[in-house]
From TrEMBL, chains A, B, C:
GO terms for molecular function: glutathione transferase activity. The keyword Mitochondrion applies. InterPro entries: MAPEG-like_dom_sf, Membr-assoc_MAPEG, MGST1-like. The lineage of its organism: Eukaryota, Metazoa, Ecdysozoa, Arthropoda, Hexapoda. Conjugation of reduced glutathione to a wide number of exogenous and endogenous hydrophobic electrophiles. Gene3D superfamilies: Membrane associated eicosanoid/glutathione metabolism-like domain. It is an enzyme of class 2 (transferase). It comes from the Eukaryota. It is found in: Endoplasmic reticulum membrane; Mitochondrion outer membrane. GO terms for cellular component: endoplasmic reticulum membrane; mitochondrial outer membrane. Its main location: endoplasmic reticulum. This is Microsomal glutathione S-transferase 1. Belongs to the MAPEG family.
Length: 167, 167, 167
């Protein structure tokens, strides 16, 4: 711990219990991968904007002047692919991050927890690559999808059992 | 508290203040219901996949080979119903969970807080049943929707008043 | 701090380290603006409902009886504008709020952190006004969008550097 407290003081021992703080390596790992996934999600907006410019598919009349497009358009397949990938992120990354935070607060085994966070986050990075950047034949996307899906389920199951008495 | 500290030590008394930890029963309750709602949101993906398979409505060309469908399709009413329910979850469950976490950190009355979390989460479970699983005539869906809506508003109002000095 | 502990006790000094608690003014600021943004997101649902009633554009058959509309309709431009604004909120506000929480847990400079939270949240409030309430010519919406976008990126970069050792 980098807070200047030694293990001998009771306070230091007690601080081991503050799971949602930087002094907990699992939380540090979570913070690192959360930042990476948030950046990835933001990049989806830029990818959508790039496809909109490339195909001149603007959804709002006030966006037309900037690009000298004659009218609003919807349903371009390239734009829609990136938007589906983005929506899939909202449906999976946000629950995964929230669930992982709650999982950390339940005090799991640190090695298991760090492993789950690393694999879950990496699978979502891979998911975006095979969905929105270089479309790859199935089952590449399904495998990436179900990896994070299974990890989120495991974390939820763990917390459910752990907190059943507070129902 | 199950951390081995007795109430006599000052540290134990101080730890009462760590609201975002398992030693706080409100947080335990939040963790239980968050897990349940996250699982519910993940199930929406499976319900969408089931409807896609049943109606052979695939949105991506790379998904066609698996199901021997001739072309991508959009707008099937059964698929769209589940997708609308899923989007409604993103729009309401995620803010509810985030808001409840912040509400807990503001140190509310434990009994009220646990009641709000239980009712808010149960209403969203009900919402999914009457929207995506067994479509029921209105106002079943509206009632479930506005229950969680009102609870989230109350929590936001409580925190706004409580933290106005930090604006 | 309003928890009755004086600065002289070691516990009080240690509690300075509990970043995710009301005793941290940055967290108080975060809690205030989170509540405001959550309320704003909930209002989007009401705006959508208002546009649906005004234009009689209902997406579910069970909603028709209430409004005596003959059939389900999709794609009304007024409804779709509010829905796009709402989706944009999901894509940007939720990552911003989650990222800010993690950023606070990394122990940033309090003045910088509070400034970033205030500006980022205010920009999103402005974004909704110029997108869904009074459509304003570009670049009003883009400026509001990229302000929060840049702040979220900065926070993510800060945490990445700060937690690189936990990768």
């Amino acid at each position: 711990m980098d807070n200047g407290l030694t293990d001998a003081t009771p306070t230091a021992a007690a601080f081991r219990l503050i799971l949602l703080s930087k002094s907990n390596p699992v939380m540090g790992c979570y913070m690192f991968w959360t930042s990476l996934l948030v950046l990835k999600m933001l990049v989806m907006s830029l990818l959508t904007a790039r496809q909109r410019m490339k195909t001149k598919t603007y959804a709002n009349p006030e966006d037309l002047r900037l690009s000298r497009s004659p009218e609003v358009r919807f349903g371009d397949p390239n734009v829609e692919r990136v938007r589906r990938a983005h929506r899939n992120d909202l449906e999976n990354i946000l629950p995964f991050l929230l669930m992982s935070l709650v999982y950390i607060a339940s005090g799991p085994n640190p090695l298991t927890a760090r492993l789950l966070i690393r694999i879950g986050a990496s699978a979502r990075l891979l998911h975006t690559v095979v969905y929105a950047i270089i479309p790859v034949p199935q089952p590449a996307r399904s495998l990436a999808f179900f990896t994070t899906f299974a990890i989120t389920c495991f974390e939820a199951g763990y917390v459910l059992v752990c907190c059943i008495k507070y129902i």
